[in-house]
Amino acid sequence: MNSLQLAAWTWKMPRRGRGFWFSLVIDLLWPFVVLFVRLRVRGRHHVPGDGGVILAFNHLSNADSVAAVVFALMSNRVPRVLAKAALWRTPVFGWAMRSGGHIPVERGTVKASEALRPAVEALRAGECVMVFPEGTFTDDPGNWPMKGKSGVARMALESRVPVVPVAEWGTQDLLPRGAVLPRLLPRKRVEVVAGAPVDLSDLYDLEMTAEVLEEATSRVMDAITTMLSGIRSARTGSQRA
């Protein structure tokens, strides 16, 4: 997608329900995406146009959130993001997170699971909820997804909404882990690809045991990994061993 095509999406993406500050951050970041990112988005047809849906992404970089929000908006959905609660305590991002109706997660505490309640409520109300099931950047040496945490499975099984697996690649070049400023030049190629919703229907009526949660989580992470393998294979011939 060239810069002109990407710029045209400014007027196509949904605005209602974004909140003033969240919408302002999107509008401020969008020119940087247009000018400095060679963005390729595929699989948007897998995202339902209405009703509750979970978009589950792999996690490589702090730039993932920007690419994931762009993907959701280009899929005509305004996302509610599960993100670390520390963002709510920062001057600018805190305003954006509250304005956008996003959902804070107190990572590494007993309160972490409390974020699932508002997430499930949002899903049942027909919202699009965006999540990174790994909970942090992957520590895999080859940048493959790690084992996911059970939150995505709990949300999916309680709400019974589709879980769309989405793979991102190239964000780690745009904003490497540990970097404060993005590497804008030369323009980085970022790909975001969604697959068909993960079938969890056979697990809906089962007791939500550790085994059931692990099975649901594994299906989601396997689907994300499959999508990522396709991107990387097409680019470099790199396949997961």
TrEMBL record:
Q: Which residues cross the membrane?
A: 20-39
Gene Ontology cellular component terms for the protein in this record:
plasma membrane
Gene Ontology MF terms: 1-acylglycerol-3-phosphate O-acyltransferase activity
SUPFAM superfamilies the record matches: Glycerol-3-phosphate (1)-acyltransferase
InterPro entries hit by this protein: Plipid/glycerol_acylTrfase (IPR002123)
The Phospholipid/glycerol acyltransferase domain extends over: 53-171
GO biological process, alphabetically ordered = phosphatidic acid biosynthetic process
What are the UniProt keywords, alphabetically? Acyltransferase, Membrane, Transferase, Transmembrane, Transmembrane helix
The reply on keyword Transmembrane is yes
Per its record, how is this protein called by name?
Answer: 1-acyl-sn-glycerol-3-phosphate acyltransferases
Q: Which organism is it from?
A: Lentzea xinjiangensis
